[in-house]
Design a protein that fits this description.
The protein has 255 residues and is α+β, with helices and mostly antiparallel strands. 20% of the residues lie in helices and 50% in strands. It is built from five helices and 14 strands. The strands form three sheets. Strands 2, 4, 5, 6, 8 and 9 form a six-stranded mixed beta sheet that branches. Helix 2 packs across helix 5. The chain starts with a helix and ends with a helix. This is Sporulation protein.
């Protein structure tokens, strides 16, 4: 009977199960995710080679002008050394890990989840999936609010594959796309795009893409070759006058 149970467990029937229990489901950037991984033994003893937690998000990949929905691992952690779990035994492992600075805010179609996996030799690896909400840090929220108060409307938010020069830092970027609503900006700009590159306790690093409105034949040619897009890299601090610093940087690219 024991041999039969082992055969069943090897194909996932009566195998060990995993359940991740988070202490909460909503987090702010710079927080640690904490919880307990609960492993319940199946119908026979099994060796657990590893327990790993993977932080995932969804994003859009563009291939040959087609947009494809994909998913990316933002970070991954191994929790334990190999151990034996007996039939019907319960084993709990507490965990805590920091959210990476590139984790996207769960706004629009953006999703973030933790996938827990057991690595069991010669068996189907059990998995568990838990979605979490990611809220902007107070400073990131202030940056987004300042841009809207300056005369921009948030049009859409997408997770996209990171451009080649950023892929060493992150597989994806979250792009906030704004359109101008006041006359000053509408006269010169088509849109403004923002990406958060990094967060600390009292600062954020952002990348702004200023898309200037084409003017005349020269403007049309610039737009055709993507030369109308200008980039601004800024570090913003808690005590900054955000609206003044942002507007100064944007208006310098409008000239």
């Amino acid at each position: 009977m024991s041999l039969f149970n082992k055969v069943l467990a090897s194909v996932g029937i009566g195998s060990a199960k995993v359940d991740t229990k988070l202490h909460k489901s909503s987090y702010t950037l710079n927080e640690n995710v904490t919880g307990i991984v609960e492993i319940t033994g199946g119908s026979t003893e099994q060796q657990i080679d590893a327990i790993y937690l993977s932080l995932y998000t969804n994003f859009i990949r563009e291939i040959d002008d087609k947009k494809i929905n994909d998913q990316a691992i933002l970070s991954q952690f191994q929790l334990n050394e190999p151990f034996i779990i007996q039939a019907n035994e319960k084993h709990e492992i507490p965990f805590s890990f920091p959210l990476p600075s590139v984790v996207p805010i769960t706004i629009g179609k953006s999703r973030v989840w933790i996938q827990t996996g057991l690595d069991i030799k010669n068996a189907v690896d059990p998995k568990d999936k838990d979605f979490i909400d990611i809220q902007p840090s107070p400073l990131a929220n202030s940056v987004l609010t300042a841009i809207q108060n300056m005369g921009f409307r948030l049009r859409k938010v997408d997770n996209e594959q990171a451009p080649s020069y950023l892929r060493r830092q992150t597989p994806i970027v979250q792009e906030f796309e704004f359109t101008p609503t006041n006359q000053t900006y509408r006269r010169y700009l088509d849109e403004l795009e923002l990406v958060f590159l990094g967060h600390s306790q009292n600062s954020v690093e952002i990348l702004l893409q200023v898309d200037r409105r084409a003017r005349g034949l020269g403007g049309f040619l610039s737009e055709a070759f993507d030369m109308d897009e200008s980039f601004i890299r800024l570090t913003l601090f808690e005590n900054d006058n955000l609206s003044a610093k942002l507007s100064h940087a944007i208006e310098a690219k409008m000239k």
